[in-house]
Amino acid sequence: MDTLLEFKGIMKQFPGVRALDGITFEVRRGEVHGLVGENGAGKSTLMHILAGVYPPDAGTLVLEGREVRFGDEQHAQTSGIGMVFQERSLVGSLSIAENIFVGRQPVKMLNWVDRKSMNRQAGALLKRVGLDLDATAMVSTLSSIEQQLVEIAKALSLDARILILDEPTATITEIETQILFDLIRDLKEKGISVIYISHRLEELSSICDRVSVLKDGVYQGTRTMAEVSLDEIITMMVGRKILNVYDDRGWKTSEPILQVRNLSSTAFSGVSFDLATREIFGIAGLAGAGRTEIALALFGADPYARGDVTLRGAKVHFRRPEDAINAGIGYLTEDRKAAGLFLELPVAQNIISANLQAFTRRGLVRDRTANDECGGFVARLRINTPSLRQLVMNLSGGNQQKVLLARWLMKNSEILIIDEPTRGVDVGAKNEIYEFIRQMAKDGTSIIAISSELPELLILCDRIMVMCQGRKTGELLHGDATEEKLMHLCAGIPLEEEAARGASDAAFRVGGAT
Amino acid sequence: MHAAASGIQASARENRTVLRTLLTNRALSLLILVVLISAVMTILFPKYFFNYYNLRQLLYYLATPAILTVGMMMLIVAGMFDLSIGGNLAMAGAVTAAILLASPAFPYPVAIAVAILISTCAGLANGLLVAFVGVNALITTLAMMGILRGVAIMLAKNPIPVPQSVSNLGSIFVLGFQIPTYYMIVIVIIGAFLLARTRYFRQLYYIGANRKAADLSGINSRRVLLVTFVISGFLAGFVGVVQAAGTNAAIGIIQDGIELKVITAVIIGGGSLSGGKGTILGAFMGALFMLLIDTIMTIASVNNMFQPFIIGIILVLAVTLDVVIQKRYGASR
Amino acid sequence: MNGSNRVKDAIVNQLINNRALSLLLLLVVLAAAMSLAFGGIFFAWSNLSGILLNLVSEAILAVGMMYLIVSGVIDLSIGANLALGGAITGICLKGSIIFGLVIHPQPVPVAILWGLFASSIGGLLNGLLVSRVGVNALIATLAMSKIIGGAALYIGGSEIADLPESFNMLSQTRVFGFFMPIYYMLVIVVIAAILLAKMRYFRRFYFIGGNLRSARLSGINVNNTLTVMFVLMGLLAGLAGVIFAARMGNASGNTLPNIELNVITAAIIGGGSLSGGKGNVAGAFMGVLFINVIKTSMVIAGIDIYWQPIIVGAILISAVVIDIVLQERYGASISLRKLQSVRRRTLGRAGSA
């Protein structure tokens, strides 16, 4: 295999921070090359340079033996670099074909768009990525994985020789990830190289040939996947061994604090489960399984929910988040930037947002007291911020997540639903957050943890319930649960033998199966 | 990556330059600007400027925009705005005058109450449409503006005189200043206090910064927004009656274009259309600044029809300046 | 798939998405009602051509406004630009002294060009403010409307009377019974519709309005495009102003009252969405037609003209509310159904792999 692309001494400086410091490594033809590193390690910056978004301050890119300097994204595209960003680039109200050919629609004379040709070409591309869809379909009707594949089709339509995938599996789930991997292997065979960026280290061994590690903008090394262990990779990323061990906590009780029976809404139906006091209860499932929707229903944010919910022995039905919060339930949202944080407000204001009443006396907010308490939480959670007045948008992903955690810690809810506790958070902060969650359970909070990362659930949870397309397909105690079993249930494939029977028995009763 | 607790104490030792403070505390920088401009004007035109009579007139003319900026600033902090205030205030004045013209024996407090009530209901309608139905604020208040102004013009194509009993409420003197001055002071102080110190109106900042996150923090955004629109409507109605009282007549096209002035004042005063920023005090200083420019134009004998022209230029300058400042200094507040 | 569901979905889909069609249906209903109530007077030729003539300015403006709304921005200075175009053309035709500059009477084509040039500059300023400086379009164009309006007022005075016949005949000539402005308008509307639907350059407006970031990354120069868009809007406004001045035989610096409300209402009713990425020219034209037919109906019915802005405002609100309600009721279920069927197909293949 020969070298397709070389990074030589790439440097990039932003005001106040050196994002890349002499990055040098190479990507071979037809290989899947993983790129990993904590948040802020420089992966995104390096890829933006490769995609032509901005030039490096120093160093060169060598593409097929020739030095290149990209003036803009167009130049990079025509040179064969295709990038699929984390954020969607599609316009919902337009067709798939129009989206793929944005700005370069095939034209007849006088720049009149040739619809027939465009749809035909788009159809061929869709086949290439394995999508059985009509090219004239409106993008807003597509599911997440379908949109992802359309994005790849778009990149391929530009004759990409190198495809950069930035967190491609962040919003799709295990089964759909397999679809993606199949496509990547296909492309590999055709000689296209893929640079694969992901926080999900377990995926790397399934799909990557080699992996390069960045830490604080510095290149740490490249390893062949077959010859390296995940622990080694993690060590390269953070410089210390991470002990991810499930902690058999003795403080979980068998008292159910929350009992859910036959909860139904537009996205799920007939869901029943118990939450024990001080338990960490996980909910696993593919995207669209209805997990977040269950959380919203419990939190009073879903007007269509029906069913019986019993909290501490009393029947409840929350119609507004306000009511749920007052009753002792908290919800840490899945998408912290869109629905969780107040990016333009200071850290202190973000932390007290759910707890204003506590700092109100005679209708007035007591800011000084609030700031004191916030300071305490910032220290306790080790949130890295120059001051309480710092606007939250200036914090890193991990610290932003901690701010959200602080909000609900301060509220001291008895039940906390955490949706994707470590999405977009680097390894170091991930472990800290796991620690904090465990500590919360120890201190008396009962936790429902929703996550797309099965290993995460296996680390944290005492019991894991699995959802598939709106229905509960099973529930496993920590002792019985493995990634394979969970994945089966996520896909709706029933487990055989006693494992399944044991699971369904345990489904309602808290406190052990057989 | 791990900040010690002392990192927080370090905030006390922040090296904030004086310039940064000035740029971030809008009310303060405006006050300084106003004082400077006044000083220069006093030196250049000594007999035009600083005397009791002028001050009294200034405060009188300041009342209408200042009161309106209170409502507008609250809305802008929440990420909203209200283009219907001009039509609303015209309608209130017209309704009051029309009622009393039609039946002179009608008790005037009731007539006033009816007018202000209708204005408040217009605010309620705005709030329901925007906060509960989900119609875009621009469309709602633009349409409402057309409707209310239309009603006002229909009622009062030509000026309708206002009876003495009512015009007293807008022009009598108390302790040497006309009464609208006092209305203004009371409303501004109450408004500033409510927005800065009370929990209820603090929520406006959250709603403006991130509506979804506010909802999920347990804030009843829809209700708070509704109340804020109602306040805007109420204040518009109040001002409309005071205006009609002060000018002794109500006319449909009164204060045409006031929306622009008020929005300009609010933006100068620190408000941002993206929400989550601004203070009432800043808005007040913005209104004062606008009036100052007005006065200078009068002294410079600039024709009345160019007022909107100048205001337009000021608005452009203000937002441009804002964008530039944001880019250079917008880190903490 | 359930067959009758399919048909129902298709119908509701058309009603929601093909705004021009729904408006046309509404118009037919309205016209029928009017002729029932007031007799054949409604369908009289003079009435129809009168309606068309009166909506020429708004139609031209609405077309440009639709482009802007699709791009996700808005322009409140169209009325001022219209006035400026007319005013500049007027003084160029008659000659004047502005700022000490002596302007000699110009030939008609030159005067028109100056007028269009001026309004395009107005549009350019809008574009620069919004795209280069980054000011919110609402605020920027609101401010500019006062600035341009002030300029138009100063230049035009309150009236520039008695424009030369050679100029007036551009709008006052009749062909096949219709005045020229109607033809100008139709040509502009048709060209604009074709451009937006078929020309590659103009398709980018949907991207800018639909997903700004991705439009940028696709190599679309958003700043330049927006600037061009605003200049075009200014040009169209000026054009409307020139046509209007020729029709009136005089030019004034006065802005037509409520024109922004009417044009925005027309565009929104016509399918534009303030969030961007949606709308088309046919819809905008139908929107203008609809509003003007309503206005004319009011006049025929003897309703005071002061009711017009009130009715237009009410229509605007109603249209948007109905849209929201329809979306909520039917939009979600339609797309959910599509989603299920499509997903089954994709996952079905994966399951067999």
Describe the protein's architecture and organization.
- The complex is a heterotrimer of chains A (514), B (333) and C (353).
- With 514 residues, chain A is of the alpha/beta class.
- Chain A has a six-stranded mixed sheet with strand order 6-7-8-3-9-10, with helices on both faces. In chain A, strands 16-19-20-13-21-22 form a six-stranded mixed sheet, sandwiched between helices.
- In chain A, helix 4 crosses helix 5.
- The longest helix of chain A has 16 residues.
- The C terminus of chain A is likely disordered.
- Chain B is mainly alpha-helical and 333 residues long.
- Chain B has one domain: ABC transporter involved in vitamin B12 uptake, BtuC (Orthogonal Bundle), CATH 1.10.3470.
- In chain B, strand 2 and strand 3 form a beta hairpin.
- Chain B starts with 5 loop residues before the first helix and ends with a helix.
- Chain C is mainly alpha-helical.
- In chain C, the strands form two sheets. Chain C has a two-stranded antiparallel ribbon with strand order 1-2.
- The longest helix of chain C is centred in the last third of the chain and has 45 residues.
**What structural class results from the helix and strand content of chain A?**
alpha/beta
Characterize the biggest β-sheet of chain A.
6 strands, mixed
What can be said about the biggest beta sheet of chain C?
Answer: 2 strands, antiparallel
Helix content of chain A: 25-40%
CATH fold topology of chain C = ABC transporter involved in vitamin B12 uptake, BtuC
Rounded to an integer in angstroms, the radius of gyration calculated over CA atoms of chain A is: 24 Å
Structure annotation, total helices of chain C: 15
Strand proportion of chain C: under 5%
CATH architecture annotation name of chain C = Orthogonal Bundle
Biggest protein-protein contact in the assembly: A-B, 46 and 35 residues
Gyration radius of chain C (Cα, Å) is: 23 Å
Beta strand count of chain C:
4
Structure summary, number of beta strands of chain A: 22
Distance, first to last CA of chain C: 25 Å
The overall number of domains of chain A is: 3
Oligomer: heterotrimer
